[in-house]
C-alpha cells in the first residue's frame, strides 16, 4: 500500500520549480516513510541536498528508498534497457547512468507513505534477480567496474553477479579477471 500526504504534490512541485530550468538537474526527490512517520532507511541530516544519486548513497551514506521525480526529457535520454522474457530490471541501472551527468535536489520531507508487503519486490529481490539474468548481469557487471564505487562494493557486486546468474547458460560480457575469483562464493550463495 502506498499513499501520499496531502501536501506531497505541492512540496514536490515547489522543489521542482527551483530546478526546472537548470540543466544540471535530472529532477527532485523527497523521502518515503512508513505509516508511523519514520523515514525508510532512517533519519537524514540534511534539509536540502544537491548531489547525484550515486554520491547520495556512497558519499552521504543515505539508506532506504526515496521518492524520485525525474524530468521527462532526462528519462527519454536514458531509456530502460529491455530484455525479452525478463520481467525485472533494477531502476539503479538507469539511475546510475543519469548520475554521471545530472544531479538531483533531495529534500527532507515525507512525500510518500509506504508499506513493504511480504510478496513485494523488495522482499523477493533474489527471486527477481534470478529470473531476470540478463538485466541482473547488466547491473552487477556494470557496478563492479564503476570507479564511483569502492572495492568492498565491487566485491559484493561480483558475488551477487554469480549468486544470481551462475546457472545462466546464455551469452555473457567479459568481466574483469578478478571477478571470476568470486564465482565459488556466488555459487555457494545461489539459493539464498
The largest β sheet comes out as: 5 strands, mixed
Give the overall pLDDT as a whole number.
Answer: 95
Structural class: alpha+beta
Regarding quaternary structure, what we see is single chain
Radius of gyration: 18 Å
Total strands: 5
Strand content: 15-25%
Q: Gap between N and C termini, in Å?
A: 27 Å
Fraction of residues in H or I helices? 25-40%
Low-confidence stretches: none
Number of helices: 8
Order of helices and strands: EHEEHEHHEHHHH
Q: What best-fitting shape do the alpha-carbon axes yield? A: globular
A few lines on this structure:
This protein is an alpha+beta fold and 192 residues long. The chain has helices spanning 8-19, 53-58, 72-77, 92-99, 125-130, 133-143, 151-165, 183-188, and strands at 2-3, 25-33, 48-51, 66-70, 103-114.
Task: Tell me what the structure shows.
With 192 residues, the protein is of the alpha+beta class. Helix content is 36%, strand content 17%. It is built from eight helices and five strands. It has helices at 8-19, 53-58, 72-77, 92-99, 125-130, 133-143, 151-165, 183-188; strands spanning 2-3, 25-33, 48-51, 66-70, 103-114. Strands 1, 2, 3, 4 and 5 form a five-stranded mixed sheet that branches. Helix 6 packs antiparallel against helix 7. The longest helix is centred in the C-terminal third of the chain and has 15 residues, at 151-165. The protein is globular and about 50 Å long. The model has no long low-confidence stretch (mean pLDDT 95).
Amino acid at each position: 500500500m502506498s499513499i501520499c500526504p496531502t501536501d506531497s504534490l505541492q512540496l514536490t512541485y515547489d522543489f521542482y520549480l527551483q530546478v526546472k530550468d537548470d540543466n544540471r538537474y535530472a529532477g527532485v526527490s523527497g523521502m518515503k516513510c512508513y505509516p508511523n512517520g519514520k523515514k525508510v532507511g532512517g533519519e537524514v541530516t540534511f534539509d536540502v541536498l544537491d548531489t547525484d544519486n550515486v554520491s547520495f548513497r556512497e558519499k552521504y551514506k543515505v539508506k532506504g528508498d526515496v521518492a524520485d521525480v525525474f524530468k521527462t526529457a532526462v528519462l527519454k535520454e536514458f531509456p530502460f534497457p529491455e530484455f525479452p522474457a525478463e520481467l525485472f530490471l533494477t531502476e539503479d541501472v538507469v539511475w546510475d547512468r543519469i548520475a554521471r551527468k545530472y544531479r538531483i535536489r533531495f529534500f527532507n520531507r515525507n512525500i510518500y507513505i509506504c508499506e513493504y508487503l511480504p510478496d513485494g519486490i523488495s522482499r523477493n529481490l533474489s527471486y527477481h534477480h534470478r529470473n531476470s539474468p540478463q538485466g541482473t548481469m547488466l547491473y552487477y557487471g556494470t557496478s563492479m567496474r564503476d570507479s564511483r564505487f569502492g572495492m568492498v562494493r565491487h566485491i559484493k557486486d561480483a558475488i551477487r553477479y554469480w549468486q544470481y546468474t551462475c546457472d545462466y547458460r546464455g551469452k555473457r560480457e567479459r568481466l574483469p579477471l578478478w571477478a571470476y575469483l568470486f564465482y565459488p562464493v556466488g555459487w555457494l550463495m545461489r539459493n539464498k
